[in-house]
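Anyone else keep sequences and structure tokens together like this?

Example one:
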Amino acid sequence: MEWTGARYTDKPAVEVRTWIDAPPERVWAVVTDVEAMPSMSDELESVEWLDGATGPAVGARFIGRSKHVALGEWATTSHVVECDPPRVFAWAVVDPDDPAAIWRFRLEPKDGGTELSQWVQMGPGRSGLSLAIDRMPEKEQKIVFVRMREFERNITVTLEHIKKLAES
């Protein structure tokens, strides 16, 4: 994948895939347990459903608290924008109409198991990264490139954790 030259307004995206030796329904149970996601992430500290929600449904909201050495600590509210069990689970960060990011899991039956992909699109709405770009506009492409590489690395680690949990 190549992000060289990408700007935030380009809505850069990255996707990572893995095959899991478990049926989609089992993988679905793991990927939709958002409150367990912090145990799979170096950045995500905690997640909790809001408004009495206890699981995924279009329109449900959850708050995530994160920490990053260069970006500090922050909390964002995410809105479930796609929920098609056991195939697609997606959420928009901050504003579903102008998201800071969109995250999506896709599950597909394959070879007796599940092909799982996790995808993220940055922007178009403002995020903490927008503040870094505002401070150093001449470094926007480098800032975006580095963040996309971090997303790719973090997604790879998350998928490894999901694979272990679903296969156990």
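And example two:
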Amino acid sequence: MARAARQPIRLKRVYDPAEPGDGQRLLVDGVWPRGKTKQELAIEAWLRSLAPSAGLRRWFGHDPARWEDFRARYFEELAANPDGLARLRTYLDRGPVTLLYAARDEEHNNAVALRDFLMLARRSGPAGRQAGATPRTLPGVRGNA
């Protein structure tokens, strides 16, 4: 059976209201957002295993000057998490997805990096994955070794 075409991955702050176009709303932070209930968030799932490690999150501290290094390190964590990525793929195969995050910075947060990782992995295709390509090793990703 052919896989359904993948939908664009949307991003949204958890403090913004849910909208019909959000599709499946997935929380991708490691810490539950303050003052919010599951019902208020209207989430399909909390994919805590895809959040950056606590140590990486603390090191980054949402400092835009550390963004490129954060992305590279987070990509390594994601590449080492096939089970978490497989779970996310099941949602992506079902239809539109919105990744929810709590950070104030809409350009430098783990949801942005996770979306970037997924987009790079899609471009590498099955051949790239079989050859050991990860977003960290793909051309155009800053911070490559």
